[in-house]
Amino acid sequence: MAMLLATLVIDYPILRETLSRAPNTKVTWEQSDITRDETHQMLVWVDGDDEMAAFDAGLEADPTVKPPLQVVEFGDRRLYQLELTDDGEQASVYPTVIEEASVLREVTATHEGWCFRAAFPSDEALERFHAFFVDRDIGVELQQLHDGRELTADSRLQYGITDRQRETLVAAVDAGYLDIPRSCSLAELGERLDISPNATSERFRRGVETLIEHTVYPDGRSP
Questions:
Q1: Partners of 105 in beta bridges
Q2: Could you tell me which of 24, 203, 6, 217 has the C-alpha nearest to residue 109?
Q3: Verdict on whether the full-model pTM lies above 0.85
Q4: Cβ contacts of residue 100 below 8 Å, gap of 6+?
Q5: Phi-psi map region of 24: left, alpha, beta (phi>0 left; psi -120 to 50 alpha)
Q6: 168-205 confidence digits (pLDDT tens)
Q7: The CA-based dihedral angle spanning residues 8, 11, 14, 15, taken in that order and rounded to the nearest 10 degrees
Q8: Considering only CA atoms, which of 12, 9, 80, 74 is closest in space to residue 42?
Q9: How far from chain centre, in Å, is Cα 68?
């Protein structure tokens, strides 16, 4: 099935109060679940260095979440299990994501807002996702949109990239290797692909070079 891949920046109210108190903290959404009693729970990774105390204090005052059900430390990161309050559930777009059969690829948040990278099965699904925020006067900006259909063998031949190069380029985008700042190191990208950092760098560089030669230069030729 063809999927539309979109990146949206949203002034999402969930955890807004918490993040305002810990401005150097980054939250990465891991998953959400609707329990049998219809409460909304979610797992989030938190990277905050010396702001963890401020983050925890913010949770106590945040109207969208209840005190953490569980907190697990992994080195300098923490995994929080949170439950949304009634206000948080009213603001949550997750039920709409499920209803539209959409897929959240990556969701992160800082004090500046939330960034959603999601795949939508149709234009209409994306429009309804966008309308969820507009109808609630929540700021939303569509930053990127492209067709996520799999490249056919003919398309890969046209662009000159191999299957392994395509795998590396897609993994780099999904992992945030091209983000500013980067969300993933070269070594971490290599771990995803089960190859060495040097091999990852070489495959990525050759893939980018080949794409540029076949799409940017006139007549698909390098100078």
A1: none
A2: 24
A3: no
A4: 120, 121, 125, 128, 129
A5: alpha
A6: 988 998 888 888 888 889 899 999 888 888 888 888 88
A7: 110
A8: 80
A9: 22
